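ugh finaly. both done.
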Amino acid sequence: MSTNQSLFMDFLILGLTDVPNTKILLFIALLLLYVLTLLGNTAIIVVIQLDNNLNTPMYFFLENLSFLDICYTSTTMPKMLEMLLVDHRALSFLACAVQMYFFVAFVGTECVLLGVMSYDRFLAICHPLRYTTFMSRKVFIGLAGMSWFCGFINSLVHSAFTFRLHFCRSNRISYYFCDIPPLLVLSCDDTSINETLLLTIGVFIGWTPFLYIILSYIYIIVTILKIRNITGRQKSFSTCISHLIVVILYYGSAIFSYVRPVSTYSMDKDKLISVLYSIVTPMLNPIIYTLKNQDVKKAIRRRMSLRKT
């Protein structure tokens, strides 16, 4: 197949299911999850913007995280809902490339951002007296910017190497959106370079932040256990446990989806795993942060009380 043929080919997204009755139930469930994701993450952004008490690096990063969740669920969910409702599965080559680029960019950005958030918690708990020095406004804005830069550069590399391939085996993507693994399966070219890129860049974007987070939390837990004041200990745990829950859910599914050889891919199983980090986690983030974080709950109560007066 020539390059031109590949460029003008429409892909057919097979989606999560073909069973008519299941499609209706799945549409309702996914629509509810999407609405909750949009409302929950938007609410966090609004509360942080309006409440001066949340004008700290920790909540600046949380605001970035919520915006990311809105962005990358919105790259896949509208098309997924359309496929379930009207069974329109076709996606142009260009639309597929754009969808994959932004999805991978947002996922990569979140991987780095979660590592940055753990660094912030490490400084705040383990080095509280030097926290404001190490985490100045210039530093935390720079760290957030670095996260976005790494995510988008990572996606640019993967997108360029993925869409230089010829997709001559089939145009049927056994997945619910355009992603790197299902596209590599369709290629008749040698994908060894793509696999090497996934594994090597995955070490820096995925494994390095994840291992740093684990190491940071070992130090954080040791430090918290040394706190004699029970109230102070509980407050420290409440600000960290939410982040740790997100990390376990997110990295566990994301690393499994990307950082492994193509020969081990199983699209039917992989798309169920990817649902965790692409659909479930963005919806859970606002719930986890509001239920486990006393400062956010107090800020929400303040906003509600102001509306009543």
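ok and the 2nd:
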Amino acid sequence: MTAIEITPEERSELARALGDALNPLARAVRSRETGLPEDRMWGADPVDATLSVLAAWKVLDAEVKRLTAIAAATAGSYGASYEQLGAAWGITRQGARKKWPQARPVAPQGTLELFGGTAELEQEAESGGWRWAGVGADGARGAADRGYPTKEEAAARAGAFLGEHAAP
């Protein structure tokens, strides 16, 4: 996991942009709570004014979490694994799965029918790897002993198994 670093200048610009975006919300919250015009916010008691700013940051925090979940789900829909999502956020694969449980779509399953046998292909939600389980034409049962990085590789392994257990 690598943490994304920003320069002091970028941090300063980000703080300025967030403050500019937040101030109208803070003024509106303060105005609704007090009934005073928005332009009088900073003339109020400093504790009340700064608590209005804090309340606005809470709203912003909830919106950032919502938008973050959308970004994670979008990345997951394009095939990003929980490991990749975690690396982007600076957390473990397990942490990403816990934070965004719906980020990875239910994987499409596939059925492979070859040599008189069948094998089911399934993507692991946790790792994104592919597994297979099948029954050969001779009745032998087999399954992947590990997840494969691609559906095609899992299908190739399943196909090899089915070929070894073809009907005579």
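summary for the 2nd one i guess: Residues 110-164 form one domain.
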